[in-house]
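Example for tutorial group B:
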């Protein structure tokens, strides 16, 4: 794949700024991420062999303050590194490692205003795009729970909000209502049923934030994008190894991470499935994740946090649904679409999942209660 000369020049400029040992022998685009531009760098080491690194151009249109974002990542990974060493693990494989610039900075800003960073590449790993088995989902849950456990004593309030109100459901609801009221493209008349579904659940939007405000839920360090493809699995053992994509690490609630995983991984259909009869919550997968997450958390969640886990699943699904619907009403300006009504289809799948969770509410709560002692 050939890159334009100007782009190549910027990449080469950025590479030269980082304190990487050895001789660069290969650089190429890497992965299929939609936010940052990612490249794999291969270096020949003086003592023989090669070492690989990930170079990324950060998307500062989405992340408005790259300095604060990188400060979060460096502080959190540094804290994790100490915990992993204390537990006898391998800190070069079990957490991300930021490579500093030659000036000792966490990132480099080039002459065109682009922000670059480098991570040590974690070799002999695989990344899963979807849940292939209950064991994979269970292993991912243990990994995200372990992430929560190791950071349980980290002062979450000291982290920056990389995207303000990212999982603040009342704020998301207000933005949705604004999109309905403005109705810029005259689409609201076509989706009255979906709008009514969303508005009927307004009271739920405050369920978690009110408990945080009155001190019944603790502020945590949260990942906020706990999809399966944000975990690296060891290629040999197939065990979950390292949590990646830490751009949205910030203060939040444990329910955000639990809930987003259930929304993404326990659904029986694709996020944009048109046939809603295919969309339900797989309670076997829900149980596998609940068991693994509580085991991974290792007793660091409070009783109230555990009690509210089903609400986390419901609210993260609902929140995603109103974001998709708001984007549809505003002309598909945030989420990438590939067909007419794509965001509307996505909103409908999320609302179908919410409705199915409500129908299975007692069962979801019973599953959490069953594994409460694993926490």
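The residue assignment follows.
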């Amino acid at each position: 794949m050939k890159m334009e000369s100007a782009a190549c020049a910027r990449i080469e400029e950025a590479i030269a700024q980082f304190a990487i040992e050895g001789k660069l022998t290969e650089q190429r685009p890497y992965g299929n991420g939609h936010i940052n531009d990612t490249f794999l760098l291969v270096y020949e080491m003086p003592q023989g062999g090669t070492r690989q690194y990930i170079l990324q151009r950060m998307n500062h249109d989405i992340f408005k303050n790259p300095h604060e974002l990188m400060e979060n990542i460096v502080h959190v990974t540094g804290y994790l590194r100490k915990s992993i060493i204390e537990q006898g693990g391998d800190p070069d494989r079990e957490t991300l490692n930021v490579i500093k610039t030659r000036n000792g900075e966490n990132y480099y800003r080039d002459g065109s205003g682009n922000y670059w960073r480098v991570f040590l590449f974690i070799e002999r790993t695989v990344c899963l795009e979807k849940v292939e088995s209950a064991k994979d989902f269970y292993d991912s849950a243990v990994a995200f729970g372990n992430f929560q456990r190791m950071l349980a004593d980290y002062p979450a309030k000291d982290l920056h909000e990389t995207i303000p109100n990212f999982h603040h459901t009342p704020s998301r609801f207000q933005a949705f209502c604004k999109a309905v009221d403005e109705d810029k493209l005259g689409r609201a008349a076509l989706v009255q049923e979906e709008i009514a579904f969303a508005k009927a659940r307004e009271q739920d939007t405050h369920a978690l934030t009110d408990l945080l405000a009155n001190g019944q839920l603790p502020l945590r360090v949260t990942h906020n994008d706990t999809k399966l493809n944000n975990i690296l699995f060891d290629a040999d053992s197939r065990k979950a190894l390292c949590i990646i994509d830490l751009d949205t690490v910030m203060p939040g609630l444990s329910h955000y991470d639990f809930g987003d995983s259930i929304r993404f991984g326990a659904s029986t259909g694709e996020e944009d499935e048109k046939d809603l009869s295919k969309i339900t919550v797989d309670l076997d997968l829900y149980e596998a994740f609940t068991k693994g997450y509580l085991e991974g958390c290792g007793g660091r969640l409070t009783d109230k946090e555990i009690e509210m886990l089903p609400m986390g699943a419901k609210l993260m699904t609902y929140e995603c649904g109103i974001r998709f619907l708001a984007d549809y009403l505003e002309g598909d300006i945030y989420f990438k679409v590939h067909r007419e009504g794509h965001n509307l289809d996505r909103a409908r799948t999320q609302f179908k999942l919410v409705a199915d969770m409500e129908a299975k509410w007692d069962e979801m709560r019973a599953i959490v209660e069953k594994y409460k002692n694993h926490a």
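The longest helix spans residues 309-330. Compare this with the pattern of hydrophobic and polar residues in the output above.
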